[in-house]
Structures are given as structure tokens and as C-alpha cells.
């Protein structure tokens, strides 16, 4: 299959990571073999944590997540944040949300709402500390006051890209950040790829929200299959290249996800009792002025720019309605001026009604 | 004997009044000019001697001292020749000096006594009128330009003899025939026409709002979507200049030495290339060269490929955009020039240009972020309208429903008239010029509009300046739609037209 062919290089990396220290040095050490073996022997003796804020957990530690031990596991994890979450990881209800870095705002919105719904249902969400789907999923978790686990491909102290630093801080205060590299190390090119195997290893279900049909985006899915976990995908528009990977997965047998409830049904129920559906519901959009509601419906149906709306409602009405709806949080505006409906944030402003007494 | 004459010298865009005093006394023949005269003025000695002799007068062989007062202002340019020569003639008794005290002389003398035109005649004519002097004598070639000022008697003179005749009460020389019109005016069907632009109702609406209120506008979109076309059509919907504005534009052109055949009729439209430096954009006036923002005064400054301009150049625009004037400080003097122009700019949303057009964008998130950083926050904050221009859909290629230049011009004219009536009391003309106090007194929001603006403020979507700009754009939109109060829909449209600032999701689905 095309998928297997594309994943060849990354598979080689994963195979390498699964080697024991001695074999790894022998395979890659080259001229520095002796020096590295000597350095390893010194380190084995003491386990002082390198940085105050981060705990270091060895694979032999009792609190190392048991789910990871089964597959190619990192020998050492650095953790920042609430370490008690690691116990929750040993349970069965962990969902990984995977996807492309260059996600569209459809993908970002879906990832956010999945994160929110799953966190509200008490499920732990794991994702990568990267732009696009990974960050959006954790934002959703934070919106529902949940606690998620984020796996970083670089050291915990070094945040790349820098734009994600505030998000990482918020995650560290509510959830936890994991990394395979020591805290003060910068990123490595293989870091994000190695992080994928940690994410997949921790989860029992992996959901791919948006992915191009490339080995980079679909690597997480490939690992999920290899580890024997449940794979699911979210469909998208067939014209969008960002959904082609997901559609390929769906036709290969991945489960179809429409909302957070579908994901919950895939999780093994604890003690045989079925899980409750998510309790967080968006603010009902009552008392919205009919002209605004009409424009909102049209945008949801696909007429997402002022030009397309102008044909039906006139340009000045289109411009004013789009501005108000964006302010109310019911629309989000992206590059190129395309609008997309979204669930308003939980703490919405006072109900705004154009013709009411407001 | 002492004689005095009046003259003006050009200093950048301003004129300075000079009093020419000539004193003749017994002594070895000498002719000295004092008063911080530059080389061109000092060379006047040779010109004046030859001119006076060749015009048939007598050059006194005595000690002549000419003083150009005030003594601490640098005088430049050959325009003082005529005044100096007439003062010498008056001091030596060959000219009746009574009229000299109420007239201004402007012109360079050639060796045979003919008067040559000098730069800045319109500016000097304005200054003469303001100073209360009743007559301006200058070269015939510039007399038409000077005659644009009402209430001033302009006497064209061909030669020194004619100047003496005029000063003694005689008739001036006739005005030369108007120069042949530099090319016939463009036939109506070749003028840029707004309905040439296919399927961009949002951008056209933004253009109308920009023209009606004098707001600055940035068009962002993929290549080939019509951004440059739209910007070039802005001139076709702006109202014609008022007489005062036309005189200001003609004055600037005259000061730079551009041949002026009459009052400027079209608003200036400047479109500098993106390799221009900050000095080229903002710099003062010196020796026939002016910065682009001065040349765009009362007109449009169009910056195509805004992201290609260097950062220092764009940062230099902040002050003129905010204050409507530019302060130029040089080693010897500093000057403040007023400059009111409309800024139009066009840019691509990302390095490849196709962000927002679905699959075609090949940029990584880092590329797009870097591209967006080139347009600094402070500059964008001063741009009132940020419009995204997309590829039109096939069905919008129909002819009907497209606004024509004539329709847009009418809307703009009426909206400007409403705004001018309202703002007359504050001495302003356009909504974009309103400051905080004017906004408070002239922009009345109804309660729904207040609530909407309050929500925007709470969400942190607008800076304080942003809020003020949104209010002025909303007032312009209300003027375009002929509403006395600013309604919620006007504020909503103003917020949409203000555009998205800051990071957001990259690609459209």
C-alpha cells in the first residue's frame, strides 16, 4: 500500500529507537563508540534530576505509564506539571488526537471541540505540542477545565515554536507535559517523530482529525496500527487535500468520528458500564436576530465570504452581519476572509439582540 | 541714497519675506551684497550690472551696498535679481521709488535685461497677497500661474525696462497666449471605470467608504485578483479638488519647478516603487525634489506590494498618517510640512500569495508568520480598512449589479457633503480627520451600537486607537447610507472592514 511505502524511513527510526543502549551505540556511534559507552556507564549510577521543575521518570520507575511499556518505549521521560495524571494514564480511557500541523480552521475547530467534549466526559486527551491539531485539542481540553497530556518533541524548557509557549504554560499548570529529551535540550529533527510513538503508546484510541496523504501526517496512524490500538478518523471535504489522508484511513477500515460521543463509544468501558455522553453543551443560540441567524445559516451551508453572501442579502447587510456574528463568537474568520461557524466559548457575553431590549 | 524693495525667497515649501535695501555713496566703485546670500544670489552682481547697462540705464560707478534683510535667513536662488536691480535704479535716482514700497518683484535677470521666470510664483503670489502688498511684478511666463490668486494685481514684465515702466505707473506687458494644452483630455471611455472590476462587491464597498471618509485602506489578496486595478480607480470616484486644495497642489508643483499651465485639475496619484527609501518617501523639499508624501498632498499615495517595502520606510509613514504633517530635520534647519493624503496599499497574504485560496498555498506556517510580521502592528493599526480580495466566482462575471464610477462618485459626494456640514464647526472636512474630541461630539451611537462596541472592547479585539477608528469608519458608513445616527449595523460593517489583525488559523478548507 502507498501508506507503507511512504512510512519506510520513519519506520527505520522507530526500529532504531527500540534498540537497547549498547546496540544503539554500536549501530550509530561510529568513531565515538567508546566515548559514548563510557559516558553511559557513568550516568547509570546517579539519577539526579537535571532541572527543578521537571521530574524525570525512568522506565523502571513504578509510576512509569504501564501502557507505554508494551511498545517501543522511551527509556526516560521528563515531566512538568501534575504527575498524578500519570496514574490516570494507566487506566484504559485515554484518547490521542493526531493531525496535521497545517490544519485548516475546520480541522482546528473540530479538534478543539473533540478535546472539549472528551475532557468534559472525564477522558484524558493526549496530543502533540505542535501547531495545528495538537495545540487545538489541548485548547479544547483547557476550555472544559480538563487536564490533558501533551508530548513535546523538544526539551520542556525550550518551547518551539515560540508562539505555543503560553499554551504550554497553561497546560503545565492544569495538565502535564512529557518529553523524551532532557529539559534543557533543544529540539531534534527526530524529536516530533519519536514523540508520536509516545503519544500512540499512551492511548487506547487514536483519532486523526486532519491529515494530508503524506507519510509525515499519517505516521501517527501507521504507528497506531502497528501497536494494535483503535484507529479513527474525522472526514472532511473531499476537495480539501487536508482530508485526503483521513479519507484514505477511513477506506482502510478506520472508524468514522462525527463528534466526541463517537469517540467515547470506541473506548473500552470501565467495569462494563457505558460511559455518559459529554455534559458540556454549547450556549443555545436563542434570541438571535432573524437576519443574523439567516446569514449564519448561509455561512454554515458554505457561502463563507462577503462576496457570496452579497448575492443574496446585499453587500452592506453581509458586511454588518458578519461583523456582529464574529463579535458574538458565532463565527471565526480566517486567512482570505473565509468565515466558519464555531461554538461560542462557554463564558459568552450577555445575550445580544439587535432589536430587543438589550 | 537709500532705496528699498520687497521680495520673497523660497525655503523648501515656504516663502520668506525679504527686504532688499540698497545704499549708494561716494567711494571706490564696488558692489557688495550682504545678508547670508548664497552663491546664486551673489552672482547677481554680474547679472545686474550687465542687465542695467544693456537695458539702457546707467550703472553708478560708486560704492553700492545691497543688504538682504533679515540677516539671519539664508537666501537662495536667482529670483531676487529683479528686486535688487530696481532698488539700485531707485537709489541712483533713475526710477521713481514711490511704487517700489508697495510692490513685490520676482525674477531672474539675463544679461541683456530680459526677465526670466523663477520657481514658486504661485507661492510668492499667495504670500504677497497675505502680506497686503498690492502689486506683483514677475516674468510673463509665470504670470498666469500667479494670476490664480484672486485680489492681487499681477504685472507681467518682459524686461527691466518694462518693470521700470510699471513701477512708474505705466501699463504692464501683455500676458502671453496660454500654452498649447499638453495633450487632449482622455476621452470618457478610456478613463478608469469602477465597473471594469469583476465581482468584488466587498472591495468596491470598501473603496467607496474609504473615499467618502478619507480613510486609509489596505487590500490583501492573491495575485491577479484586481488589487492594483481597484487602487487605480480610486481617483475616479474621489470628488474633484476644491479651489483651495487645487491651489495647494499647484503651489507644490510650482515650487518644484514643474511647468505650471494652470490650476491642477486632477488629484495627485503617487505610486512609488517599493525600493524607495524613507528619505525618498518622507524627505523634505530641496532643489526641485520632494518626498512622495508631499507630492501626494490632497491626493492618493498608493503603495503596491506593501510587504516588499523596507521596514524603516514603512515606519517613517506613521507620523504623516497620524498627524497629517511631516517634520523634516536637517543640519541647518528644520521644517514642518502639512501633508494630507489617502493611503491605499496592496499586499499578498503570504510569500507565495495564494493563502486563502484553498489548496494553492505552498507556504509553511513559519513563512506566513514571518510575512505577516513585516507589516508592523503600529502601521496596521493606523490603517482603517483591511479588505481581503479573493478570486471571484464564475457566476459573478455578470455585468449588472456592478457599481459604476459615476454611481460611486455620487455616493461619495453626498456622504462627504453630510460629513462636511457636520464637521464645519470643528474646522475639519473628513471623518478620518476626527480626533477624540470630535468623535465624542459628532458620533452618536444608538444603544445597540454601544453594546456591540463594548463587546469588542471587552474581548480585547480593539486597541483604543482601533476603537476610535472603528467609530469614525462607522460614521462614514452611516453617512454613505444617509443615516443620522450610527446604528449597530454600521458598527458591524466597520468591524468587518477593519479586518483581522494578529495570528489566526492559516488555511481555508
Q: What does this protein look like?
A:
The complex is a heterodimer of chains A (358) and B (509). Chain A has helices at residues 2-6, 8-17, 21-28, 33-45, 66-69, 85-90, 105-120, 133-143, 165-174, 191-202, 215-227, 244-251, 260-266, 290-300, 306-313, 315-327, and strands at 55-58, 76-81, 94-98, 124-128, 149-152, 176-179, 205-208, 230-233, 255-256, 331-333, 339-341. Chain A is an alpha/beta fold and 358 residues long. Chain A has 2 domains: 50-272, 3-Layer(aba) Sandwich (Rossmann fold), CATH 3.40.50; 290-341, Orthogonal Bundle (Arc Repressor Mutant, subunit A), CATH 1.10.10. In chain A, the strands form 2 sheets. In chain A, strands 1-2-6-5-4-3-7-8-9 form a 9-stranded mixed sheet, with helices on both faces. A two-stranded antiparallel ribbon of chain A has the order 10-11. In chain A, strand 7 (205-208), helix 11 (215-227) and strand 8 (230-233) form a beta-alpha-beta unit. The radius of gyration of chain A is 23 Å and the shape is elongated. The model of chain A is unreliable at 1-6, 278-283 and 346-358 (pLDDT under 50). Chain B is an alpha/beta fold and 509 residues long. Chain B is 37% helix and 17% strand. Chain B is built from 21 helices and 16 strands. In chain B, strands 11-12-15-10-16 form a 5-stranded parallel sheet. A 4-stranded mixed sheet of chain B has the order 1-2-4-3. In chain B, strands 5-8-9 form a 3-stranded parallel sheet, with helices on both faces. In chain B, helix 5 links the parallel strand 8 and strand 9. In chain B, helix 7 (201-213) packs across helix 20. The longest helix of chain B is centred in the C-terminal third of the chain and has 19 residues, at 405-423. The model of chain B is unreliable at 503-509 (pLDDT under 50). Classes of the chains: A alpha/beta (358), B alpha/beta (509). At the A-B interface, helix 7, helix 15 and helix 16 of A face helix 7, helix 15, helix 19 and helix 21 of B.
